[in-house]
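WP5 quarterly update. Target: Methyltransferase family protein. Source organism: Chitinophaga niastensis. Length: 244 aa.
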Amino acid sequence: MKIRNPRSRFDLNIKKGDRVLEVGGGHNPHPRANVVVDKYVDDNTHRSGDIKVLNNQQFLNADGEHLPFKDKEFDYVICNQVLEHVEDPVAFLQEQFRVAKRGYIETPSLLGEHLFPKKSHKWAILEVNGEVVLVDKAKMNFPTNFDFGDLFLEYLPRHSIGYKILERTHPNLHTMRLEWEDDFKYVINPEDKNILKYFEAPWTREMVLHYFPQRSLGKELADATLAFTDICKSIIKSRVLRKK
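Structure tokens (predicted):
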């Protein structure tokens, strides 16, 4: 079942003694992963750089749809920016549910896919009513001629404090993040018009409020304050590490 929507891939409920697997760590493996698997070793089509393996991590060349592990061999599995690429999402997800007790999955949201579309992404993904919905981009005639990735993924996160606050106060704006236990609900290429409208029609005010419920001014101020504090801590930490 779904547990919650974390603020980031570092906001995870991983215990100190947990054995952690990452599926598709690529060029940016999670530092908490004990074992990292990747399907493509010499092909960077599906990632932004060469495979990287951190100290004390075991790396295996393996297909996420056919993982070489026993049932529940891991306490936790991390899957960051991979599901949108896979050919068979059912087999891919079922393998994660099989080999781990709990886990975290992150993908571009539907809005994120529109802002920075990638030809290597097969699926447009959005969480609707507690279900992770995947729609084949080919069925949607998904436009890929505009890509604002350099702006929203590189420049603004590095140089705009206002954007950093937005990322933290609305973490699922252009990213779908979900932490789960045992499994979570998902649907592939749904036919339900109440779900498809999020993918095929202009969003009405009602749809916006359903996906992003309006919060009180006090809640907004509290979240913005926490976000700003977190940003300050991150800046201080990065400068300290740089000096070392």
